[in-house]
């Protein structure tokens, strides 16, 4: 049951008078639920309750937190069809996608549960003391990671489950021992409330302090801004636009006590097609990339928005094939009229740029809120001169840059802003002759992909989802995979501390049996 | 030989016309050397050369970088007495301290050499692919840490060797694969130039690209500001005042591409004396703390500027003993007249605060630039009301806060700003009764110390030197020990990348034999 209310420390709350509805882009009409925006006092209460909860929640054992995270996963699954229906009504996405994303979401929760139950993630590092050392005794030092405090998570428009209410940011923060306050995404507030209700049930069933979770509704920027400004909030997770992420980063940097903002923002994910790959496999790659560009109506942060190659007849043939393939794909609905309008505007603006050629533009009429996919082409020289061409068009759009030589190709890559991914399409040995191209690409991205597509982000330890600015605000940390827990923690050392008062992770006898670095050796 | 010139990409350069001298605080007169400030074009050249050098230096193997770091250590030792003499003339510190600090400096360089030669520090993480996985193949993903680019290091006034030209920031950045541009500290520009000359020799002898190191002179803020603003600089290390560190942080946060600033700034390092420890061991602790407060003329970032206890007769007796002990210590020279004047001003300001009692103030005449140590006392209530009392007085100064009960003691700790360290003085079991006090203390610090003094920072893996703001700007990273290398790196993932083109650290056959996490297991 979607009530439209906020959830403050696991209790429903609706003191405000500003209301809004979510929108069904397929039916092109408002959904039935009405949501009540959080008020300033509700924001304060959520933070105060989180601060109180932190005292006890941060001291729960990894096993206890693991039970909690698994219970959240169970409760999300128990929401059944109601969740899937709300998801579809608020996004225009298909049921299959909704179910996949739910699977990914509960999978992430269980992955973090496993991580904290096992316990070695705290990076316990021990230097045994040497009381007899000359000229001075060497103290005993033991260090591990501790949670930092209340975290604000902003729901993402394009992943209502996997990067929102109980998505990767929330799961990793809760796993680390931090309470979470979600700023619900206004486009899928109903989906968010259902997931929030699952977390509430899990809190109750596993005896966690209620302040460990809140879910606040809002349509504008004020609620999010107030949360990031709040002196007791200690960290922020965000997935969205460069403008939005940078605004939050700037607010956090101006605080008396600056706090980290992990904003995963814009990326056009350059793909380099090497000449022999185009000569030998143009047909296969045209088909593959038509699929990647339009996957999820192009609404992925890893969408391939930029394709780079050396000008050649093979490239022209590839473009013709890609054009045909992409126009054969049935247009799909976008998440929301606002996103659809931005797509149309930005695509239109791009197509008016000097020297740009439209090589494919779905020109048949489409249903309201459906996107008309397009592919364009410019020369390397034009791309280097016009920074507008470097900007992201969020949706099923891509641009091919035809470079006159390898030098220009390398230069184009070097002038790109930071990106989440960079891909090289090659026949097996060809890439060896392009070392400078690869070096340039590596300097601009967080993940390099060989002979694949950037869409699809495997949730695993070796994943880096994040890249040089503006792909993300802090590219030392990944937003996906177990290492994303490191965003919400800081190390604390204990010097000559009594063994019985140390956290279990650092006690001499290692009661948890975790992996630790002792005097330089992993034990 | 100290020339007074800048070093740009290992070449002497002196295009500017602004000059300055360093000062001998013991003799109270200028030193003989004249230094030429770096110009804007010299700054640009240093950064450009660093960018060029990064291309090759970042690809040097760990073994090659290890040889380079060890050679720097050798060259610093080869400077012999000239270095020690310059150090003493520019700081007023004793020869013994100079030699100790030199030992720490070369020790750090050799520690990082060992780390990168061994190679496991890159945190290689591998998820083998599962091409047969259903419904989709699992890609092969391999992740490790890579250096981020040119780093600016600001020399620290209080550690001319260990935290300056070839100190911990420089050593860790060079170890990671980043070129370094040092903004030389104006108080010890001669010491800095000598160390810089050692690095230049090491660059030449080990065949490193010259742009890997520059050393720029300056007295004002302009050179440092321009360096941090420079779009091609990728990170900053700083040790100094809150005002200075915050100014650099703000500049970096406002850039089009924000960069990390690791500023290690102010800390008053609270020490909690528990009642039984005071009752049973007041004499020993008074002697120990008189020594810690005055060590290095109180010019350590870990100086115990704040002592907390419950009001009692034992506390009064402890104060009397501490007062006697501290007045028995011969006053010592400060680093510079500017630092001495700030000490006198800040001490004077503190002593005028309402309700504060001066319990010890060295009132006999002292030599010019010598500090008169002092200890003061306030009640918990007064401390809670007056935030001026929370500020650092850099020098041999400390304040005792007498709290009326445990609740007030906990409150006092909770209201403190972030600190590098927090110490508890206790008889062995007593601390168990003060769980809330310890929890509050842990929330404010990076390192907890039991029955010791905060001065003395062991260089080891388990050390955390850094703490919640304003102790440091980014308390997820330590400034001391091997983990400080993590400040200058970012992870990059390789997806389905050809094995022969992977960095050696990630190749299937593990040619370097490093420790790696493979499919969740450390191998």
Which structural class should the secondary elements of chain A be placed in?
Answer: alpha/beta
Report the largest inter-chain contact. A-B, 65 and 65 residues
Total E-strand runs of chain A:
21
As a percent range, the share of strand residues of chain A is 15-25%
Largest sheet of chain A: 7 strands, mixed
Radius of gyration of chain A: 25 Å
At CATH's second level, what is the architecture of the largest domain in chain A?
3-Layer(aba) Sandwich
Structurally, how many domains make up the residues of chain A?
A: 2
* Termini gap of chain A: 50 Å
**Rounded average pLDDT of chain A:** 97
* Number of helices, where a helix is a run of at least 4 consecutive DSSP H or I residues of chain A: 14
CATH class of the largest domain in chain A: Alpha Beta
Outline of chain A, from the CA principal axes?
Answer: globular
Described by its quaternary structure, the protein is homodimer
Which strand order spans the largest sheet of chain A, edge to edge or round the barrel?
14-15-16-13-12-17-18
């Amino acid at each position: 049951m979607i009530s439209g209310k906020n959830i403050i420390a696991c209790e429903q709350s609706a003191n405000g008078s500003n209301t809004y509805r979510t929108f069904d882009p397929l039916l092109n009409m408002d959904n039935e639920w009405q949501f009540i925006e959080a008020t300033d006092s509700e924001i304060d209460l959520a933070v105060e309750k989180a601060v109180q909860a932190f005292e006890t929640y941060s001291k729960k054992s990894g096993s206890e937190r693991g039970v909690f995270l698994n219970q959240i996963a169970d409760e999300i699954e128990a929401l059944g069809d109601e969740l899937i229906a709300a998801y579809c009504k608020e996004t225009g996405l298909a049921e299959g996608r909704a179910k996949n994303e739910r699977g990914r979401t509960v999978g992430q929760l269980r992955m973090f549960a496993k991580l904290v139950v096992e316990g070695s993630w705290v990076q316990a590092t021990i230097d045994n003391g040497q009381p007899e050392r000359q000229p001075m005794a060497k103290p005993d030092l033991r260090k591990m990671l501790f949670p930092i405090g209340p975290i604000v998570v902003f729901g993402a428009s394009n992943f209502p489950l996997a990067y929102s209410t109980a998505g990767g940011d929330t799961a990793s923060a809760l796993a680390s021992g931090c309470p979470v306050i979600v700023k619900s995404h206004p486009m899928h507030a109903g989906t968010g409330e259902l997931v929030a209700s699952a977390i509430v049930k899990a809190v109750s069933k596993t005896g966690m302090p209620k302040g460990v979770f809140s879910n606040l509704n809002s349509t504008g920027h004020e609620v999010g801004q107030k949360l990031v400004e709040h002196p007791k909030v200690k960290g922020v997770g965000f997935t969205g636009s460069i403008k939005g992420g940078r605004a939050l980063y700037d607010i956090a940097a101006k605080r008396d006590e600056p706090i980290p903002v992990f904003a995963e923002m814009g990326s056009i994910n350059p793909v380099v097609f090497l000449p022999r790959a185009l000569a030998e496999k143009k047909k296969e790659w045209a088909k593959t990339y038509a699929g990647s560009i339009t996957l999820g109506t192009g609404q992925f942060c890893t969408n391939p928005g930029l394709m780079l190659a050396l000008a050649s007849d093979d490239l022209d043939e590839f473009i013709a094939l890609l054009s045909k393939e992409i126009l054969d794909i049935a247009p799909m609905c976008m998440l929301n009229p606002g996103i659809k309008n931005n797509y149309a505007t930005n695509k239109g603006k791009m197509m008016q740029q000097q020297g740009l050629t439209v090589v494919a533009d779905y020109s048949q009429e489409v249903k309201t809120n459906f996107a008309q996919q397009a592919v364009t082409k410019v020369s390397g020289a034009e791309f280097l001169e016009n920074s507008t061409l470097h900007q992201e068009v969020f949706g099923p759009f891509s641009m091919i840059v035809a470079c006159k030589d390898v030098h220009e190709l390398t230069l184009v890559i070097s002038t790109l802003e930071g990106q989440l991914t960079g891909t090289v399409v090659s026949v097996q040995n060809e890439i060896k002759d392009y070392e400078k191209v690869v070096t340039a690409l590596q300097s601009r991205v967080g993940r390099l992909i060989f002979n694949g597509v950037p869409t699809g982000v495997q949730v695993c330890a070796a994943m880096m989802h994040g890249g040089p600015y503006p792909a993300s605000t802090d590219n030392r940390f990944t937003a996906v995979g177990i290492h994303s827990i490191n965003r919400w923690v800081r190390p604390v050392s204990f010097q000559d501390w009594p063994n019985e008062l140390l956290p279990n992770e650092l006690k001499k006898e290692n009661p948890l049996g975790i992996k630790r670095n002792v005097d330089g050796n992993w034990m």
